[in-house]
Amino acid sequence: MPETSHFAAIPSQITQRNVRWRRFRLWVMVLIYLGLAFLVLYGRPPGNPAPAQAQARPSATLTLAGEPGKPSPTVTRQHLLTLSPSPTITGAPPSTTPAGTTPEQPAFLLEKLSIERGTIFLSIYEAGYFHLYAYHPQHLPFTRLTFGAWDDITPAASPDGRRLAFASNRNGQWDLFVLDLASGNLTQLTDTPEYDASPSWSPDSQWLVYESYAPLPTELQPTPQTTSAPASAAPITHSLDIFIRPAQGSASNPGETIRLTSEAAADYAPSWSPGGRLIAFVSNRSGDEEIWLADLDQVDNRFRNLSRLPRARDQYPAWSPDGKALAWASSADGYQTIYLMEVSSPPAQARPLGNGARPAFSPSGAILLTALSTPNHTYLTGYERGTSGLVLPAIPTQGSVSGLSWSPAELPQPLPAVIAQAAQVTAAPPWLAALTPAADLPASRQRVVELQDVRAPYPYLHDLVDESFNALRSALASRIGWDFLSTLENAYLPLTSPLFPGMLEDWLYTGRAFQLNTGAMNAGWMLVMREQYGADIYWRIYLRTRYQDGSQGMPLHELPWNFNARYSGDPRYYEQGGAYAQTIPPGYWVDLTNLAASYGWERLPALLTWRSAMPAARFNEFVFSDGLDWRAAMLELYPASALATPTAVLPPTLTPTRTPWPTRTPPPTRTSKPAFSATPSPSSSTPGAP
To answer: Of 197, 536, 597, which Cα lies nearest the Cα of 400?
Structure first.
C-alpha cells in the first residue's frame, strides 16, 4: 500500500510543477511587453519628430533591359523598408504660415542645409489656384513669384539658375512660359490648344523636354469599328506624349518641335539627365506606371523599363546634378516612398530613401527635397542622399504641391518690380462666414440655414459653413462649365433620418457635411481615384469639363477606380470592391477634391466594410470640421440630452403572472441487454414429422 500511494502522488506533483512553469512564463511575457511599451513611449528624444514607421517588403529582383552587346544590369532589393509618415505629421493641423515667413526648425537638423544655397521653386495651391513660390529653409522665407486668377504649375529651374520654365493657363490654354529671374520678363514658348506642362531643361539650357496632350499619330487613331463604344467610354484620340523644343524663341517663332514618344499609353513627367543623352519619364505602356529611360543615341532600342517595382505606381523621376543617380516617387501598399538608384554603377541598386511624393536634388546632390502628402495636407521634408537621414523636418504648406525644383542660384536682390509686386500680395480668403441673427437660440448654439436653389432631401447646412459651400459651388461651376453642386444626394440630416448601418455618428447630422450626387458617375462625368494612406482608403473626385478644347481642366495622369467592376461576376473584383480601369479616360477634368480643400472641405476615409457595402466607401462625402470632433459639432446644434440614447425599459404588466420554474429533464435510463444462455433451446417440431 505505501508504494501504491507514492506513485499516486506523482501526477499531482507534475501538475503543480507545470502550473509554476506556466506562471513563470506568463510573468516573463508581461515584463517583455512592459519593456517594449516603455521604449515606444519614452525612447524618442524630446522635441524631435517621431521616427517614421517601417514596413518590410519581401525581397525582389528587378532586371533591366540592357542595350545590345552589353550585360543587363540587375536591381536586387533585399527586404526594402517602406517608411510611413509619422503620426505627428498625419494629425497636424493645416498650415497657417503666411507667405514671407519661415517656420522655426531645430538647428541640429538644419546644419546640413547651411552649405546648400540656391533657391527652391515650387507651385502651391492657394485660394483655388496654383501659384509659384521661392523658398529656402535657412536663407529665404516663402516668397510669392506669381499671382492671379490662373494656375502656374510644374516649375523647372535652368541649370545656370537664371530662368524658370513652367506651365500656365493664364492665357486660356495650358502653355509653356519662361521667367527671367533677373529682369522679371516673361516669355510664352508655346501657343497651342493642347495641354503643355512639366518642362525639363537640357544641360546646356538650349532645349526643353515636356509633356503634351497631343493628338495620336494617324496610324494610332481609332477606326470606325473602335468608335462604337458607349458615350461614357469615348474613343481615345489624344494621349500624353513627350516632346522636345528649343528653349529660345517665342510662341510666334517656336522653332523645330520633336516628338519623342508616340504611344496610345500615357508618357509624361520627363526629366533630362545632366549627361544630355538620357531622358527619364513615366509611362503606363506596360500596364503599370513605371519609370522608363529614353536613350537619344539609340533608334531601334531607344526605350527601356527602369523601375519595374511590383504592385507600385512610380512617378516624378529626378536626376542628381552629377547624373549618377535617379530618384523617383513610388506608391505601394498605402505608402509613398522615394527610391534612389545609382544608375552609373551597375548592377543598379534601387533603395528607399524616405517618405515623399516629388523628389528634387540640392545643387550639390547631397540632399534630396520632397513633398510629403497626407490625406488632407502637404508638407516639405528632406533626406541626406548617403545615409537616408532626415535633414529637414516636415514643413506644412498652404496647399498641395505641383512641381518642385532646386536651383543653384539665389534670387536677385533687389527683386525685379514684377516679382516684388507679387511677393507683397496677400491672398484674400475665398469666402467669409456670416451668421444669420436669431433671437430664439441659446448661447453658444447655432442653427442650420437653407441652401438656395439646391435640390436635396433636406437642403440645409450649418450657419457657419453655408457661405463656404456657396463659394465652392460658384468656383466649381466656373471651372467645369456646369452647376454640379445644384443637386446633392444629402446635405443636413435630422436625427430622425437613419443612415446606413455603422454610420450612426455621420457628419451629415452636424450640418457640416454634404454628399455629392453620384448620378454623374454613371453618366461618365465623374471619376473616382483610389488613394491609400497606410491602412486607410481615401478617394479623389474628378469632374469632366463642359468644354473639351483645353480651356478648362487638364488631362488625367492615372487610372480611375471602377466600382461597377464588382458586378462583373468575377469574385476577385467583388472582394476588392472594384478594380482599376483598363485605360486612362480621355478629355479634360477638374480635381474637385483639391478645389474643395481650399474652401475648408475635407474628405473622409472609407469604412472597413466599403468593399461589400457601397455607402461605406464615403467617396462622395465632404466635411467642414473646422478642428471639431463629431460630438463637439453636434453640441453646436443640439443639447447634450438629445445625444443620449437611453435603453428602453419595458413597463410592467398590470396583472403580474407567476414565472414558471424550468422543469428538469430526467436523465435517460440504460436499457439492459438480454443475456444469452449457453444451453441451446430445443427446436420446434415440424408438423407432420414422424
So the answer is: 597
Contact 114, 138 (CB under 8 A): yes
Q: Which domains does the chain possess?
A: 115-219+235-423 (2.120.10.30), 448-642 (no CATH)
CB of 386 closer than 8 Å to CB of 112: no
Which of 498, 499, 501, 493 lies closest to 609, judged by CA? 501
Q: How many CB atoms lie under 10 A from the CB of residue 231?
A: 7
Residue from 454, 508, 472, 480 nearest 596 by CA: 472
Segment (H or E) for 12: helix 2-42
CA separation for the pair 568, 252 (Å, rounded): 52
Q: Residue 199: which of 164, 224, 225, 229 has the closest Cα?
A: 164
| Per-residue cell: 257 | 518641335
Give the helix/strand (H/E) hosting 631. helix 630-635
Would you call 532 exposed, middle or buried from its count of C-beta atoms within 10 A (0-12, 13-18, 19+)?
A: middle
Inter-residue contact 377 to 92 (CB < 8 Å): yes
Greatest Cα pair distance in the chain: 146
Q: Would you say the C-alpha torsion 188, 191, 197, 198 has a positive or negative sign?
A: negative
User: Nearest-CA neighbor of 266 among 245, 243, 282, 244?
Assistant: 282
- Mind giving me the DSSP string for 170-208? TTSS-EEEEEETTT--EEE----SS-EEEEEE-TTSSEE
* Contact (CB, 8 A) for 552 and 480: yes
Q: How many CB atoms lie within 10 A of CB 429?
A: 12
Nearest to 155 by CA among 394, 402, 323: 402
pLDDT band at 219 (very low <50, low <70, confident <90, very high): low
| Residue 637 amino acid letter | L
Residues in the chain: 690
Residue 20's SS3 state is helix
pLDDT at 292: 95
Backbone phi, psi, residue 514, to 5°: -145, 155
- Residue 333 phi/psi, 5° resolution? 55, 30
Q: Which grid cell is 587?
A: 478629355
d(CA 661, CA 534) in angstroms, rounded, equals 56
Burial status of residue 284 (CB atoms within 10 A of its CB: 0-12, 13-18, 19 or more):
buried
The Cα 399–Cα 652 span in angstroms is: 61
616 within 8 A of 604, measured Cβ to Cβ: no
3-state secondary structure of 18: helix
Alpha-carbon distance of 175 to 154, in angstroms, equals 11
Q: Which residues contact 311 (CB under 8 A, 6 or more apart)?
A: 332, 333
Q: Print the SS3 string covering 478-526.
A: HHHCCCHHHEEEECCCCCCCCCCCCCCCCHHHHCCEEEECCHHHHCCCE
Burial degree of 564 (CB within 10 A; 0-12, 13-18, 19+): exposed
**Cell triple for residue 531?**
488613394
pLDDT tens for each residue of 600-637 = 999 999 999 999 899 999 999 999 999 999 999 999 99
- Please write the tens of the pLDDT for every residue from 378-420: 999 999 998 888 888 899 999 999 999 999 999 999 999 999 9
